[in-house]
Amino acid sequence: MKRIKYALAVHCGLIAVFLLQGCQTTSDGNKADPRKSAEVRTQIAAEYIRTGELDAAKRSLDEALAKDRYDPLAHMMMGVLLQQEGSPTNLAKADEYFKRAVSLNSSDAQIRNNYGRYLYQMGRYTEAAKEFKIAGTTLGYNQRAWSLENLGQTYLKLNDQVNAEKAFISALQVNPNSAIALYELSNLNLQKANYKVASQLYQNYVKVVGVNNQRAAALWTGIRIAHANNDNINLQVLVNQLRALYPDSQEYRNYLQLQYKTEAVWK
Q1: Which parts are the TPR repeats (predicted)?
Q2: What is the pLDDT of residues 51-72, one digit of tens each?
Q3: Minimal CA–CA distance to 181: which of 210, 156, 160?
Q4: How many Cβ atoms sit within 10 Å of the Cβ of residue 100?
């Protein structure tokens, strides 16, 4: 799960982006619009989830659904809340809320993306890919690159490297600075022995994240690319960085074990 966890960290967890808005009071005898009330309570719940106040979020979402039981975003956010809590009982309940949200608004890309993330977490990768593909091909969706990154990582879980590569290329077309897409495409090209392409993608990845902000896995990718290109100077720089930053990592153990092995093992 480490790849999707990295994506989640980059994008601030499981929560859709909502702006907290004020709720106007009504004049005597006038009732607030139920839909608007549900919307405001859902936005408040999103902020509670962001700050880890899950019980307050649940109360706010209960109020939202009492105001408008057909509000798809309230159902989606309830699914996000239950997924965030993470117990087996609540994870099971989350599925029903996500399904209800999709049935109420099947064209909402944010709902599709969040449901896909839930399905990915549950190991239901084929279903997750379907949701990410819908979100990732919804023009105008402001997190479309994110959905395409998720789609690519899901295809990797399905051992479908061809479609994973297509998804990551699409993510770069939407966001040329997608660190996830650059990293994964570099790895995929390394595996195919396309060392020149892998090297360029890796260099672009380093430019995006910063030379001192690479994860152990990324440094290991850079090491293998440098080894394949007989770039011993850069290889040693990356090895030193891996040893200094991640001495207990599996990647550094890999280096120690494989440095005297055959070429095939390095790929």
Answers
A1: 145-178
A2: 999 999 999 999 999 999 999 9
A3: 156
A4: 18
Query: Which of 33-37, 54-58, 114-118, 237-241 bottoms out in mean pLDDT, i.e. has the lowest?
Result: 33-37
17-30 mean pLDDT: 38
- Residues 67, 33: Cα–Cα separation, whole Å: 9
Residue recorded with tokens 């999707």: 4
Tell me what the mean pLDDT of segment 221-245 comes to.
Answer: 93
The DSSP string of the chain is: -HHHHHHHHHTTTTPPP------PPPPTTPPPPHHHHHHHHHHHHHHHHHTT-HHHHHHHHHHHHHH-TT-HHHHHHHHHHHHHH--HHHHHHHHHHHHHHHHH-TT-HHHHHHHHHHHHHTT-HHHHHHHHHHHHT-TT-TTHHHHHHHHHHHHHHTT-HHHHHHHHHHHHHH-TT-HHHHHHHHHHHHHTT-HHHHHHHHHHHHHHH-TT---HHHHHHHHHHHHHTT-HHHHHHHHHHHHHH-TTSHHHHHHHHHTTS-HHHH-
The two three-digit tokens of residue 252, written as one number: 């550094």
Q: Is 24 left (phi over 0), alpha (psi -120 to 50) or beta?
A: beta
CA-CA distance, 28 to 172, in Å (whole number)? 54
Indicate the residue type of 96.
E
* Structural domain 176-266, CATH architecture: Alpha Horseshoe (1.25)
CA distance 257 to 51: 43
